[in-house]
Amino acid sequence: MSGEIATFLAIAGMALVTYATRGLGPWMIARLAPGPRALAALEALPAAILTALVAPSVLATGPAESLAAIVTIIVALRLPIIATMAIGVACVVLLRYLI
Amino acid sequence: MSAGRGMNEPRAREFRQGVRDVLPVLLAAIPFALLIGALAVQKGLSAAAAVIMSATVFAGAAQFVALGLWDNPAPILLIVAATAVVNARHLLMGASLAPRLIHFSPAGRRFCLFLLVDESWALAERRARQTALTPAYYLGLGLPLYGAWTVFTAVGAVAGAAIEDPQRFGFDFAFTAIFIGLIVALARDRASLAVVAASGVAAALIHLVAPGPLPILAGSLAGLTAAAFLGKGGQP
After folding, report:
1. B174: part of which helix (H) or strand (E)?
2. Most A CBs within 10 Å: which of B199, B205, B224, as the mutation test of the A interface?
3. Best residue in B146, B180, B192, B221 to probe A by mutation, most A CBs within 10 Å?
4. Which of B37, B115, B120, B126 has its CA 20 to 30 A from that of B139?
5. H-helix or E-strand containing A54?
């Protein structure tokens, strides 16, 4: 039974810290009250975060991932997200098999 | 939908648009929810505990890391600390999204923040560039994703050993492709390209020395620094 208690405490702790990370961002911004220059820089944050999320996979995993990423960028310039995703996945599967 | 709901029309339309936009993400997330359920049971958690975890934590990357560290009994402090580190990126996402949530009610904002994951956040940011972000649209993104994540965790926990690693089928790249699509939509001018370059190079370099959550923070801050120096944000 003590194993079960530890399990639920761990899950509760995970839920609490996760919600804290989600809730504290807006709270920080409200407290810091950034000026116009900082706000302009904040506008760039989404692109910066998204790029940081994919960069390890795109630039530092292997040739299959890097090549598939190039194809995906070209596709993304013309097609909607769902097609971009399908073609990107097909590409990486094929390239991982070939390389 | 029906004629008697004239008042709710715009809201229903916003919600449906959110559902449509989140659909690719939903498809990509299902195999990972199945795997989370299967992994949890393999680690000795009950199916109920697996579902409770997905329903209360609702954060894929953190759940994978936590289950990797799981033992019997669970190392509570280690698991909670690892979760905090993996989810630290939410701080940046929440900070970036905050100005878009100002018109939400306080309770609505708190609930929407609970539903914040990489994908719903990114789609909400894209939406905010095109038109005002509404709670209905945001819920259209977040609720289906939350429902699918919880339900398919349960399916994975029951199906157990029959679940295959989604990486074998290239599903890990599905999120990369979705995010590439969103970067292309967000970064259309030269200043944003500089931000993307700074963030990408910094994240990849840090990844080579210290893979994990650090590259995400380092890349984001490098991009932010580039934006501050250029004195321009992501908007053309």
Report:
1. helix B172-186
2. B199
3. B180
4. B37
5. helix A45-59
Contact criterion met (CB below 8 Å) for A48 and B220: yes
B51–A contact, CB cutoff 8 A: no
B44 Rama sector, left if φ>0, alpha if ψ -120 to 50, beta otherwise: left
- Is residue B162 predicted with pLDDT exceeding 60? yes
Please tell me the predicted confidence (pLDDT) of residue B7: 54
- Inter-residue contact B169 to B31 (CB < 8 Å): yes
| 8 Å CB contact of B57 and A68 | no
Joined together, the tokens standing for residue A63 give: 């040739």
- For residues A47 and B3, the model is more confident at A47
Q: Domain limits of chain A?
A: 1-33, 45-99
CA A75 to chain centre: 19
**Nearest chain B Cα to A1, which residue?**
B73
Separation between Cα atoms, residue B214 and residue A39, nearest integer Å:
24
B51 to chain A: closest CA residue = A11
User: What chain A residue is nearest to B63 in terms of C-alpha separation?
Assistant: A14
Asked if B65 contacts B184 with a C-beta cutoff of 8 angstroms, the reply is no
A88:B91 CB<8 A: no
In angstroms, rounded to a whole number, what is the distance separating the alpha carbons of residues B85 and B77?
12
For the ranges A77-86, B62-71, B127-136, B160-169, the lowest mean pLDDT is seen at B160-169
Query: Does any CB of chain A come closer than 8 Å to the CB of residue B106?
Result: no
Q: Name the residue facing B203 among A12, A51, A92 (closest C-beta).
A: A51
Q: Are B147 and B54 in contact (CB under 8 A)?
A: no
pLDDT tier at B121, thresholds 50, 70, 90 = very high
Contacts of B83 in chain A (CB under 8 A): 13-14, 17-18
Q: What is the pLDDT of residues A69-99, one digit of tens each?
A: 999 999 999 999 999 999 999 999 999 999 8
